[in-house]
Amino acid sequence: MSDLKIDVLRGHSRRVLGSEIDYVRTVDSTMDRARLLAEQGAPEGLIVLAERQTKGRGRFDRKWVSSMGRDLLFSVVVRPEAEFLAMCNMAATIAVQDVATAVTGKTATIKWPNDVMMFGRKVSGILMESVTSKSGRLDFAVIGVGINVNLRSTAHPEIRNIATSLAEQRGAELDRTEVLDQVLSRLDELYASLLSGVDLSKCWADRIDTIGREVEVNQGGEMVYGKALGVDRDGSLIVETEKGTNIVVAGEVTVRTTKK
Ligand code: BTN
After folding, report:
1. Is the pLDDT of residue 219 over 90?
2. Which residue's CA is the closest to the ligand 1 atom numbered 2?
3. What is the pLDDT of residue 122?
4. Which residues make beta-bridge pairs with 171?
5. pLDDT for 191
6. Assign residue 24 a region: left if phi > 0, alpha if psi is -120 to 50, beta otherwise?
7. What distance in Å separates the CA atoms of residue 95 and residue 100, rounded to the nearest whole number?
8. What is the pTM of this model?
9. Are 144 and 131 a contacting pair, CB within 8 Å?
10. Which residues contact 221 (CB under 8 A, 6 or more apart)?
């Protein structure tokens, strides 16, 4: 296990990402630190990177579990127009999925809307948070990325049955700096293309294994059952139910093995 090589990451120039890298060993959450720095005027592309989080979080305020120095925990500050927000999540999941597939030689897929999965287990989660000014304009967004790189899932009872890591899938530990370098380069490329007007939703939909399957969606306790048909440009899931088409903006999706 070795520390991340920040000089290597800083040495690679990209369009937007990595304009500044803020590297800390321990932080409560890279989301909170990135938000604080963004509020203080940090430039677009700032990356907050940590070896350990004491309050790492995921969607629905769930705890994000990781081991000191074994994984990748980072948040990126972006300042796009609000219309591009949903595509930032698409870009991040596509970037991680591409790299996970490349470094393991096995297929990674996306579970709508923000998980990267390998063989039914989660290898990465993406969290998007945004801050809007009083005038209603988007000030900035923070894209949080957790990637289980060298995590030993058996060391964490709470996730041992649902999580995996790139190392577990590859059968050997990986150099975290190389993985991060690849993710940042791919995300940088995708971010530049979405800002230039490229619609990532088709590319994203092709990678979502939820599509075409019978699903149940928990929307804050309200259940929607049906077949996931696709996603729209805003990243919402289109579900065909017995009562008609349902556009799911947010929720927890489970693929059903038996028809309701
Ligand atoms: C999810 O699976 O719901 C999203 C998980 C996001 C975890 C990452 S780790 C880096 C960043 N800091 C956090 O506290 N959360 C995100």
Report:
1. no
2. 125
3. 98
4. none
5. 98
6. beta
7. 9
8. 0.95
9. no
10. none
**Would you state the structure tokens that stand for residue 76, as one six-digit string?**
């990126």
pLDDT of residue 178: 97
- Which residues, other chains included, contact 26 with Cβ-Cβ below 8 Å and sequence gap of 6+? 50, 51, 52, 53, 54
Q: What's the rounded Cα separation, in Å, for the pair 15 and 258?
A: 47
What distance in angstroms lies between residue 144's CA and the mean position of ligand 1's atoms?
5
CA of 237 to the centre of ligand 1 (A): 21
The alpha carbon of 260 and the centre of ligand 1 are apart by a number of angstroms equal to 32
Asked if 70 and 151 count as a contact pair (C-beta separation under 8 A), the reply is yes
Q: Is the pLDDT of residue 79 over 90?
A: yes
Asked whether residue 118 carries a pLDDT value surpassing 90, the answer given is yes
Q: Which is nearest to 153 in space by CA: 169, 145, 165, 171?
A: 165
Query: Smallest Cα–Cα separation from 125: which of 248, 238, 256, 252?
Result: 252
Q: Which residues line ligand 1 (CB under 6 A)?
A: 29-31, 53, 56-59, 62, 64, 73-75, 114-115, 125-127, 144-146
Q: What is the pLDDT of residue 258?
A: 59
**Cβ atoms 58, 64 nearer than 8 A:** yes
In the numeric block, which tokens belong to residue 230?
């696709």
Check if the beta carbon of residue 147 is closer than 8 Å to that of residue 141.
no
Residue 260 has pLDDT above 60, yes or no: no
Cβ atoms within 10 Å, residue 172? 10
Confidence of residue 220 (pLDDT cuts 50, 70, 90): confident
